[in-house]
Amino acid sequence: MTLSLMFEVAMLVSSVCGFLVAAWLLWRARKQGDLQALAGFAIMMAIWCFGHVVLFQGYEKMGVYIILANPLMPTFFLHFAIRFVNSGAAKEVMLDRLLQAIPWFYAASVVVVLQSWWMGAGDAIGTLDTRSFFIFTDAGTWNLAYTVLIGILAHGVLLFGWYRHSGNKKRSILAMFGVGAWGLLLATSFVFPSFGISWFPYPMLLLPTYLLLLVYAVVRYQILSVNAFANRALLWVAMMLVILCLIAVISVVSGRVGLQALADVPSWQLWLYSLLMLVMSALIYQPLNRLISRVIYPGAVLNETVLEVWSSQLKEAQDWTQLISIGERLLSSQIRQNVDISLDSVGKAYVDDGQTLALSVFRSESGWRFLLLGWNDASPGMRLTAEVFGSLFSTSCGLLERSLALAVAERKRLDEQHLVELGSLSAAMAHELRNPLNIIAMAAYDSPPETRQHIQTQLKRADRLVSDMLVYSGGLTLQISTTPLRALVKSILTQAQLEGVSCEVNIAESIELEADPQRLQQVFINLIDNAVAFSRNQPDGKLCIEASMNADSVVINVHNNGPEIDDSLQGEALFQSFMTKRAGGSGLGLAIVRRIVDAHGGHIQHRADTAWPVTFELILPQHSAYSRLGSTSHDTK
User: For the domain with range 3-223, which CATH number is right: 1.20.1070.10, 3.40.50.620, 3.30.420.480, 3.40.50.1000?
Assistant: First the structure.
């Protein structure tokens, strides 16, 4: 192969690559102005390379005219550079003005081209094996200078974008500068003959790589499919290099091992035949791969569209039942057989009977896993489909699990917010109710004694309900001090209305604890009032309060001989708000008691294992945690 033929082939390949790249960019770019301008650059470069081919074929005048249109190449590139850079952080008024002036740059480039044609700025000389090669005449200096200046301006815009941008766009610009240096190195040899340098333009033989590398540098961070294409292209290029090395070895060794006929074949022919085989392999690879897949896995039609449909429909599930229903429908429709899906974590267990196709999905320590049940007699294609679907379904289970957990957390947050608002409303209403109650009490002062007594009884009940609402809905402020327990209980009993219920106090004088005496007094008032309400109707109503020391805590038992508490109210239900069997009760008494005890760091429970029918046991720390922290006041919600 002669050097002129190699040059002609390189220009032809560059031209074909330019048109293909331009078509691909226009198809992918659609409304992206920067990629459309880059497609224009690719078209002009393809035309410029084709001009050399035309020149080599003897059409000198047409070839020279085409090559003299080279100012349009950097103009398209300038248009692309401005659009590519002028966005985000690099958007500038100067670039907007340059973009508005782009039509004038195109017009100036057309004028330079027309002037070059009219003044004869180019000519052809025989330098490559008597074939014609393009050179600039003296009148072509302006054409060459204008082309270089536009190229410098375009790269200056890119330099500004590299300075202002960050991330992928900055990396794209850096890659373009590297490719630009490569293109400058290749194009330098183009002007050798114009300056009287009789060197063969070897660098231009690699000109097809410039355009491909430039496009790849621009779009690799914007169109992901380009990276996959580049991955395949590099693989085939590597295979071509391996073939070249193998042919070189064959050419040297074949003659020495007796294969003289093979040794006499020109190396370029061996390389060409091998290249054709490589191209044929690349063309038939995908069809053969699909054919073999259908032979090995008959009935398995899996592609990106199917997987995308599966993924989108599984994401629509709002609960586990709906997810199972969608999964069974999708997989059964794909393999045209009924399939059962079971989720062990939601209580739908499946027993393998060896006849029904099933997909069992379960939660393990490392995440969601799946197991195929009853698929032993299924075809390889069906099993492959089930395995792919099982993997996708397991992923969907994890997504749904996290989605439901987030929904529960959000509902809990809204419930807590609602309770806070309800508490504020209750406190406001309780405060507002005291004014009409006071007015009613004053108005009843002049009423008959029996009526006045009845009104005062009901007013005391209403006042108690209001007090309970204020305590339960508001925050607790603890004023910690050393409190003698026996004296506190005795003072409460002297003011309590026991209504004939006898009371016994077994508390040592030495027992003291660090607590809020006002809040602790409220605890005993509620417990005593509750005990009297249920014990007063007994023939011999009794109440007993006793306390003892246990390590660093004080254990207090409040006994009464009232009726035993129903089993339905045992445990935590007994201390819930609005839970009561007492006529006229608010249902807040024991809830308030537990809240105050919890605020002190203590514990309260009902015990049914004592000698008394009803026993409430309080365990309070002798030394308050707040006093150990050096504080005598603590707010708790």
Answer: 1.20.1070.10
